[in-house]
Putative transposase (Ornithodoros turicata), 179 residues
Amino acid sequence: RKEQHSMILQGCCDDTMMFTHVVIGYPGRMHDARVFVSSGVEEILERLPEDMHVLGDSAYPLRSYLMSPFRDNGHLSPLQVRYNLRHSKARAVIGRAFGHLKAKFRRLQYLDMSRMDLILKVVGSACFLHNFVINNTDGDECDEEEAVQDEEESGSQEEEASSADVAASAKRVRIANDL
């Protein structure tokens, strides 16, 4: 019996579902936050201006350039609940982007290949073609029903109390107050 292996495709996209950055090839058992740190994308995001950031789910650490939701310990304030709802709605675009990618390229669900270098090229090419389709069509080529995907939360990332984390927490509260 063949063992099935998985690999992580970590991606960032814009509001049109175009992938702006993808990381392919880490083992599927690796935690999202570890992939994030290991991939080099963190160094890119650290150079963002203070008023810019990307959104990540609760698996990712809160940073000034990476806004994650408030941890729901059952005692969230109405402000935090509202922030988390808006955050989730805005972050849903990446789930739709991955859903569209899987709907367009169904074979990605199971690649019967043994050469990792070719697997990486196939997955990367699918991401490129996904962007190509978005750039060269008027509207959505996928059925919304096929494209809907509920991204699993990979577990909450424990936040450390460093000065960077304090600044990131303050930024998140400012954003929540502005909503």
